[in-house]
Design brief:
Elements (H helix, E strand, L loop, with lengths): L2 E6 L7 H6 L6 H9 L1 E4 L4 H8 L10 H5 L7 H4 L2 E13 L4 E8 L4 H14 L6 E4 L5 E6 L28 H15 L2 H8 L7 E9 L28 H6 L6 E3 L3 H9 L21 E6 L4 H4 L5 H21 L5 E6 L2 E6 L19
Parallel strand pairs: 1-9, 1-10, 8-9
Antiparallel strand pairs: 2-11, 3-4, 3-6, 3-7, 5-6, 10-11
Length: about 375
């Protein structure tokens, strides 16, 4: 395999306090790449970079929700003149002076619960002009009327920080701001939250709307392997619905693992499907694709390990994915490793470990 890419979607060292919270954590895999590899800043973040990497550079300016909508079930009639936002389940905490997004507040909700919430939303808010869809990968897609010139912030970028000034303002988007407030009240006593609380999980206090853009029709591949399927990554043209898609499909960009909605939409637009994360890194090495990308979230670990913080979650990602990729590089099973996080990318090739003159440095400094 030529290259393995590992994207950590919710590691942003945007403040001294956040960086200090993981200072000193042992990251042997990332430290090796930081010492011998080459680093570059990603001015636009990981999503436009991944679009280019996948051979779809014309999508770099597309909104995240517009890309994610490719994996929706929306029809052409439903999307005409409409707008979509990603709706991420989050846990907000009210402090003495402001409301914060909990450091563990990016929540993962199973598909059945997401579908129940979407069905209930579309009943309760039927007259609002908005429609909520539970995406098959993760999170939700909210479709509604167009609202131009509205800047939103990805929730992963403000974990542990105040939400003051980053939510849509009532003065610029009154309809959307009112909907956000009404959704918070709707979620407060929802049965899905009662079940989450009973199971010891953080309740969903809000659906964070971000990444909005023009709505698009979902791409139906006619055949969608289950997430985690080991079927071939290539989708035959005969099963691609619609002559337009068949005519414009790009070469298959490689095999993709993860449940990020943008990732699934991006791969759907190439005529393929992203898959669930495998249990072990080695499972990907037998795949026929030349390249592979793993899109991982530190927040995923918090459901299974409720006492973990970002320190333990980051160490786990380093051990399971980065160290395993380095082992494969030493065996020459892969030719290059790229790690993307905090709007930076680090790349290590087969020849780079011979740069013995390079001194060790703390792993995270290479991502700043």
């Amino acid at each position: 395999m030529e290259e393995v890419v590992i994207v950590i979607t919710d590691l942003y060292l945007t403040s001294a306090a956040e960086a200090a919270s993981i200072r000193g954590v042992e990251l042997p895999g990332l430290a090796r790449i930081a010492r011998y590899g080459n680093g570059h800043a990603l001015e636009q973040g990981w999503r436009p970079w991944l679009a280019t990497w996948s051979g779809q550079g014309e999508l770099t300016q597309s909104a995240p929700a517009t890309i994610a909508a490719a994996a929706s079930r929306a029809t052409a009639a439903e999307v005409k003149g409409r707008m979509v936002w990603l709706a991420t389940p989050v846990h907000l905490v009210a402090g003495l002076a402001s409301v914060h997004l909990d450091a563990r507040g990016l929540l993962h909700v199973d598909l059945d619960a997401r579908r129940a919430l979407a069905h209930d939303f579309n009943t309760v808010f039927a007259e609002s002009g908005f429609r909520l869809e539970a995406l098959p990968s993760a999170g939700f897609l909210l479709m509604g009327p167009r609202i131009d010139d509205l800047d939103t912030v990805e929730p992963a970028r403000i974990l542990g920080a105040s939400v003051t000034g980053v939510l849509p303002e009532a003065s610029t988007a009154p309809t959307l701001r009112r909907l956000i407030a009404e959704m918070e009240m709707w979620l407060h006593s929802h049965p899905v939250n009662a079940e989450r609380t009973r199971r010891g999980r953080l309740p969903i206090t809000a659906l964070w709307l971000w990444g909005g853009g023009g709505a698009r029709e979902g791409i139906d591949l006619g055949f969608e392997p289950p997430l985690g399927s080991d079927t071939t990554d290539t989708v035959p043209a005969s099963v691609v619905r619609g002559a337009a898609l068949a005519a414009t499909a790009v070469p298959i960009p490689g095999v993709a693992f993860g449940d990020d909605p943008y990732l699934h939409g991006l791969w759907r637009m190439s005529g393929s499907n992203a898959r669930a994360m495998p249990d072990h890194f080695e499972e990907v090495l037998g795949h026929t694709s030349r390249r592979a990308v793993f899109v991982v979230e530190l927040s995923h670990a918090f459901d299974a390990h409720r006492n973990w913080t970002i320190r333990e979650a980051l160490a786990d990602v380093d051990r399971r994915w980065i160290v395993s990729a380095l082992d494969a590089l030493r065996r020459r099973d892969i030719g290059r490793i790229t790690v993307v996080a905090n709007d930076h990318r680090l790349t290590l090739g087969l020849r780079d470990p011979w740069k013995l003159w390079r001194m060790p440095r703390p792993a995270l400094t290479a991502l700043q």
